[in-house]
Amino acid sequence: MQSDLLHRYIFDQLDVRGELVQIEQTFKDIIGEHDYPEPVKQLLGELLVATSLLTATLKFEGDIAVQLQGDGPVKYAVINGDHNQNMRGIARLQGEVTGSSIQDLMGQGYMVITITPTKGERYQGIVPLTSDNLAECLEGYFEQSEQLKTRLWFATRTSGEQLKAAGLFLQVLPVNKEKSQQDFTHLEALSNTIKDEELLDLDAQTVLTRLYHEDNPQLFEPQELNFVCGCSRDKTINALVNVGQDELLAQVAEDGEINISCHYCLKNYRFDEQDIKAIFN
Fold this sequence. Notes:
Shape: elongated
Radius of gyration: 21 Å
Structural class: alpha+beta
Largest sheet: 6 strands, antiparallel
Helix content: 25-40%
Order of helices and strands: EEHHEEEHEEHEEHHHEEEHHEEH
Distance between the termini: 52 Å
């Protein structure tokens, strides 16, 4: 089964649209060498799935950031994505992780969804983290921002090398309100039967056939997901220029060199005295 694919689908006779995303390599790349506890890996996996599904709802080119902030053991967790499904993400801890629910991890907090179109104004939505899980928090976001009935189902596998994340998304189409609500209730009941292992391990067509075999789901061409960090030596140099040559040379004199690591991919960029002088010359 090819992983790291986002699938969109509709139904012939039902006023509901859906999405199914299954992610493996991109999830592994985001986790990378970060030594996250298992519950934090799971949280980032769900956040990655959520960002992909949210990005697929955008009808324009641009970027999206889904960030969780709180006063719990996890200070924040964020996934950045764009309309091409290029993803990166990170979590920052400020205490010992002892639970796995949103409240256990984030404490009192909120979710910030920032959408930045290539053309047009930036939009930001803020949702309190009052539910037990991320899916319910996002359902509240859709209810608040779009007034459209939406359901999400997430599954993650974080043990050992088996890093996988997947998600299912249903949303009513704003057509005939009474009919679309009936259609949604019907499909929601079917979707509630999905098992984590099915969502993670079966190909998209098999999943949809098992769930909705009498409702004729129509899959569109899938879209690939990729991990794209965006860091580079040139960007690091631009940041160093803002510090100033004298301060940088003083640091080199004290430490022998300057080391700057990317927060996302942990790639290290090294600069010695000759490098610093070359930057400013």
